[in-house]
Amino acid sequence: MPETTIILDATAIQRALTRIAHEIAERSEVGADVVLVGIPTGGDHLAARLAKILAGIWNHPVPVGVLDVNMHRDDLDRRAAPQIHPTVIPFDVTGKTVVLVDDVLFSGRTTRAAMDALNDFGRPKKIQLAVLIDRGHRELPIKADFVGKNVPTSPGEKISLRLVESGAAQDEALLRKK
Amino acid sequence: MSWTRKHLLDIESLTADEITTVLDTARAFKAVGKRAIKKVPALRGRTVVNLFVEPSTRTRISFELAAQRLSADIINFSTEASSFKKGETLKDTALNLQALNADFIIIRHSASGAPHFLSRVLGASVINAGDGAHEHPTQALLDTFTVRERKGKVAGLNVTILGDILYSRVARSNIWALTKLGAKVTLCGPSTLVPKTFEQMGCRVTYDVDEAIRDADIINLLRIQHERQRKTMFPSINEYTQLFGLNKARLAGTKPDALVMHPGPINRGVEIDSEIADCDRSLILEQVTNGLAVRMAVLFLLNGGKGPQGVAGN
Predict the structure, then answer these.
(1) Which of A27, A111, B193, B262 has the fewest CB atoms nearer than 10 Å to its CB?
(2) What is the pTM of this model?
């Protein structure tokens, strides 16, 4: 039986998101130019939550989109075809500060694919990266701007984020040891 | 979500889940066609060969554009200017194409089973773009995609396929796809072209066109395929139009939200009146748009390696 531990519970996830939202607000002088783009699965729901908190801080709605990166991955021939989610970016990203939102930062390959995919939609002024969990083991020169929690892991372990938006009973981030 | 196949040879062997996977994937690729930049790098470095041993325009162009939008390289190989004329066998031609490191071979052939044969002798992925009167899987997938997109579902719908069923690979593939997804399929046409044996595929067969389309949610018209008929199967084209052609009067006897489909090329004034082909209940051009998305999805799914399903790691 693989051993599973909870690394973030519902309260910790909400607290981490609130802190990330405040850091995003602090970092950007002109809030009106910030848009959030979540990467499925997980990042899209987190982006929606961050947008809600940021809207409360700035007193105006924050645009939020969903970006599927699977058509831009570099490992498509090394595994079975991934499930593709609809990409919905209902605004122009050109000239904006785009905050990419992902659940877990690992190799960095998803982030690279996301930056490539985003460029097909326009030329953002800046791209920043917000992740709930940074588990290390980068394979590319990529670093998150906003991190909810750093979790030291070994490569074979698996982190899964369960959110109520995708049918979980409660929010939690789990680490499964091999 | 499940897809582990290397070839797309027919609809008959697919599960409902696999068909749904193609349709879901195609939805994302349809959205790519609406972007300013309509190209994604998913098949970068791959080589696709269109091996069309039987003439085709729309299917070949659709596959060609699909491959290009996925950043693959594509070459077209047609009967007119080819070594078939010099007596080379299909197997040798295909092996030569494979020797050029082709990753995908899209084949259209007048012989049923030609794609299956190639899939056994080649290392490349084989896609059936129509084999004789057997199957035309991507046409059925795009038709099913169009039905699902417009009606929100496939299960429980009444779909009437009207015309030359006997010689139609489009009909066979559509029947498989629709019945697997739970639609009720009715076939109608001249009795010589719609044998009762199709009832074994789970369809209803009728020769009364007005009755066949009365409760239909979708009316799919098929072209009379003169090129596949060895002898005349009905007295005259004019008689066919009188008895089975879809015109305004006939359409008036259907449900107000019944939609009209046709795989093309259409024969205006034969199986469909011009007025109907151009009306807002006609999905004919939408089928063409969806065909591109479905073919991109098929190429994308077949390109997947043998690794685990889903997103690898984080």
Answers:
(1) A27
(2) 0.90
